[in-house]
Write a structure and sequence with these properties.
Layout (H helix, E strand, L loop, with lengths): L1 E7 L3 H4 L6 E8 L2 E8 L13 E6 L7 E6 L4 E4 L6 E7 L28 H10 L16 H8 L1 H13 L11 H25 L7 H4 L1 H24 L2 H4 L4 H6 L14 H28 L1 H31 L9
Parallel strand pairs: 1-3, 1-7, 4-5
Antiparallel strand pairs: 2-3, 2-4, 5-6
Helix pairs in contact: 5-7, 7-10
Length: about 350
């Protein structure tokens, strides 16, 4: 029987330090272990991390299922084996959710894309034959291909933060302890957010079935940019705390009208793509605006001369005057449009 142990590589630096011993805290899923943290004392995980447990120990009497060791020459952990089982240790670098990183073994789909089934004629016959297939025992995934295991690996750093916060048991700071500058920033951001939401509502307000967004491409682009700025905080929030995406009845998501098709953040959902797209589009708009502004300022005389001579004088005045003169001299009675 083979067991897989996914061991965060940044924990190896902690193993190299001289200590009396460590408890290895992590998750056990079927025949797979995910090592999350090393502690010098037993832990009491918070309720939302109830599946977190001590999976083994190092330099201490065995606690949990595994007895770890450390090879200072190779600088890798190993398992003291006392049975016929085999153990495979896979080192991985924990994805940093603050940098919008995560691991995936499947293609990443855009959040607004769903899996579209394309039934064909053969599917009907396949469904009829399925009732004659013998029932087989359910086999659990015992590799990184399992979405549950991948989920634990991707949330290693966030689990550590939650675990440390629960151990410190810090109380929430009182409102009086907030720095005055922070209050000013919060009020300013709230004020700007209200203005943006009001502008979006105004641009989409319909009068006799028409709105500014529906009749003007310029206003439509403005509406898109305002929504990108307005959605930017919630996009990062959904990536940081995926439980928001799991709650499809959330009034926040309904009001923002975010597309919710996938419940698995690590494989199907790609909020980090949406977040990067929004950041890039906003940066691209600013970059293009600065570039066009500098070009106009540096070539102001050339631009104004071009607009005056080519657009205003020639197109709007000379050519229209020539056309009117031609009609007045050659066709004073006008045109006969039909016989």
């Amino acid at each position: 029987m083979n067991f897989q142990i996914y061991f965060a590589s940044d924990l190896i630096r902690q193993l190299a330090r001289p200590q009396q011993g460590y408890y290895v805290v992590g998750y056990k899923i079927a025949k797979v272990y995910v090592a999350v943290q090393l502690t010098t004392e037993p832990i009491a995980p918070p309720p939302h991390l109830s599946s977190l447990t001590i999976i083994g120990s190092l330099g201490l009497p065995q606690v949990g299922d595994l007895q770890f060791g450390y090879d200072p020459t190779l600088k890798v952990p190993y398992i003291d084996v006392h049975d016929d089982c085999t153990y495979s240790i896979i080192l991985f670098e924990p994805p940093n959710f603050n940098n919008l990183e995560y691991l995936s073994v499947r293609p990443i789909l855009l959040q607004s894309m769903g899996k579209e089934s394309t039934p064909n004629e053969q599917d009907k016959y396949t469904a009829k034959l399925e009732i004659f297939e013998p029932s087989t025992e359910h086999v659990e995934h015992n590799s990184v291909a399992s979405s549950e295991i991948m989920d634990k690996i991707n949330l290693v750093l966030k689990t550590r933060i939650d675990l440390q916060a629960s151990q410190k048991k810090h109380q929430a700071p009182k409102s009086g302890s907030i720095h005055p500058l922070v209050r000013i920033i919060v009020q300013l951001v709230t004020f700007l957010q209200r203005i943006i939401i009001w502008l979006i509502w105004t641009l989409n307000y319909k009068v006799y079935g028409y709105s500014l967004v529906s009749v003007s491409n310029v206003v439509r682009q403005l509406d898109l940019r305002l929504k990108q700025i307005n959605y930017f905080p919630i996009q990062f929030l959904c990536y940081y705390d995926k439980s928001i995406l799991y709650n499809e009845d959330s009034p926040l998501l309904k009001n923002l009208k975010l597309p919710i098709f996938n419940s698995d953040l690590n494989i199907n959902n790609s909020n980090y793509i949406n977040l990067h797209n929004s950041a890039w589009l906003m940066f691209n708009d600013i970059l293009m605006g600065v570039l066009v502004h500098d070009l106009i300022i540096q070539n102001f005389d050339t631009v104004t001369t071009f607009l005056h001579k080519t657009f205003i004088q020639r197109i709007l005045y000379s050519e229209i005057s020539t056309l009117i003169h031609w009609i007045a001299t050659h066709h004073p009675a006008g045109f006969k449009l039909n016989d």
